[in-house]
Amino acid sequence: MITAKIQLQYSKSFLIFLIIALLSCSSGKIDAAQDKGIFFNEIPANIHPLTDLYKIYANEVELPVIDGMKSGQSGYLGYNYTTFWCSAGDVTIKIKAKDKINSISVHPYKLEIPVTKIDDYTCSFVMKTDYYLFVKINGRRVVIARDKAETDVPLPGTIGVFNIADDLKTLNATSQLNTRKVAEAIQQTVDKASAYGTETGIQGIVYVPKGLYYMGNLKLKSNTALYLAPGSVIRFSDNKTDYRHDFTKKSRGEGTWW
User: Is beta strand 161-163 parallel, antiparallel or unpaired with respect to 140-148?
Assistant: First the structure.
């Protein structure tokens, strides 16, 4: 049996702030979005800050725009971004900027996407298919990523789908104090899914329901698939003691298999 491993090394200034996030919309917004065939994830400010530089709409559905422009702070992207998914067909993107739009361009240029100016602060264009675009507005970049509509969503409780909630039970996974216990519980779920996949020849699915889960060491084994439901966030602990000490290298210091 093969175990997938990621080598993680840390120093005295050790910090992990890795988020695998698919975050849910509030019921009112998601209902309105679904009526127009647009699906997105509303991002709570305590997970990712939102920018006030732009409002971006897809078929008149407002999308959350993540602030990735925190200049001078490590770990930020240097651009803002938003994502959504929908079925095939044209989607009209409208951008309302906080400041007057003096220049705007849509990349990659090869797509030759024309931009329509609505007023000094508002422009629009059409996305004809799923793509990763970046729009440069007054020299700043904002990424707009469109994905295909989700299919084959696993259902908790069906054969071959293993819900981490069954192993977490009443454990509070949102508290970083429980990181190790949460990791151990989720590892149990992964082990069950892997055993099922090995026995049947069909991948066992680890189902992560909506919620925040602080995580330490986790081994994703063969014959498994990891599914994060909308609204689920796996956040790796920034506490060095939440991880095993698996090795030491003179050139790198202490490290762990993650």
Answer: unpaired
DSSP structure class, residue 152? S
3-state secondary structure labels for all residues of 70-102: CCCCCCCCCCEEEEEEECCCCEEEEEEECCCCC
Report CA-CA distances (Å) from 64 to 46, 119, 137, 187, 223: 14, 22, 17, 32, 35
3-state percent helix, strand, coil for the chain, nearest multiple of 5: 15, 40, 45
Half-sphere exposure of 156 (CA within 13 A, CB side): 12
Structure tokens at 240: 């060095």
DSSP SS3 for 218: coil
Cβ neighbors of 250 (< 8 A, separation 6 or more) are none
Q: Considering only CA atoms, which of 124, 193, 130 is closest in space to residue 160?
A: 193
CA dist 245 and 217 (Å) reads 10
pLDDT in tens, the chain (258 residues): 333 333 333 333 333 333 333 333 344 455 455 557 898 876 655 677 888 999 999 999 999 998 887 654 555 678 999 999 998 899 999 999 999 999 999 999 999 999 999 999 999 999 999 999 999 999 999 999 999 988 889 999 999 999 999 999 999 998 999 999 999 999 999 999 999 999 999 999 999 998 889 999 999 899 999 999 877 888 888 888 888 777 777 776 766 665
Look at strands 80-86 and 140-148 and give their pairing.
parallel
* Integer Cα distance of 105 and 98 in angstroms: 17
